[in-house]
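Duplicate of earlier report; Spore coat protein SA input re-posted below.
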Amino acid sequence: MLKVLHLLSSDRFSGAENVVCQIITAFDGDSEVEHLYVSPEGPIRETLKEKNIRYVPVKYLNGIDLKRIVRIEQPDIIHAHDMLASLFATFCVRNIPIVSHIHNNNFGFKGVGPFVTSLAYCIAARRAKHIFWVSEAAYNGFRYKKICSSKSSVLYNVINIEELNNSIKIDPEKYQYDLIFLGRLTYAKNPQRVLEVTKILKNQKDDIKVAMVGAGELENELKNFVKDNQLEKNVDFWGFRKNPYKILKNSQVMIMTSRWEGLGMCALEAMALGVPVVSTPTGGLCEIIEEGKNGFLRKSNKELADKIIDILNNPSLKEQMSTYASENSIKMNSREKYKNKILDVYKKVSGK
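Output:
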């Protein structure tokens, strides 16, 4: 049996953490691989408990605790998720193969930070036995990709559609929204643009209803914007929702305005539930959104608003896009193929 230690730097449930849960649960009932999840202690504990995933928390990501856990657990592989965890594994652990998994594409974003991140990640990339990238955009965004091209592969995220539908069934509440934003209220997700688009939409549809589902450091700023622009009757803030899927299902359109995005688990979830996605042309979203079929890609706020209105005012277009999105999602989300690709890499890098 292979033992895999999944290492993460975050203490809460979001995109990358969702992917890790999808990986681990894809192996349910498989006696070939044992998984454990290691990250800073935090709200993620509750999610992992519900999914019956073994959790080994640390106070914060540090070399002493990681070495101790490795000594006790003796994993065959460390599957490190994103740059920071990959670097920690590289510096703190020897003689255990590392699989690095990159979930975003902010390497190519302008500024000193992404440049330094790219430079630092070169160390982890050289040490890793294999690197998974969640999209071509994530891979191409790494300016030093030539040093790891021979051990890189694109592994598109998948979701458990049955689990999504079961989550909807257990939510007794009723919701009805024209537009939904689902994600962290942080700089990377650029939620301010969602409200700027909403302001434009209100001029064309005075009773537009928007759900903002997520939490983050920008929450107060966003609420002030809503108040200052008289959008209180149009926008509902739901905060972090462990089960947001009925809200998503009962929304007409999803909007995404991310500054960078590896692939976007929430976009995959929206499509699986038949909700078209209108987004800025960012990262891996350009690889899964098909123009006029399951969504639209537009650059300006006015263009985003226009496409949202097109869908809202055209029920037959909405129905057509919804049907295509959900049917295509079934084709895209083969969890068995996903599991087998990961297992092949595990066996190769471990020699087992």
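The CA atoms of residues 104 and 262 lie 4 Å apart.

Merging into the original ticket.
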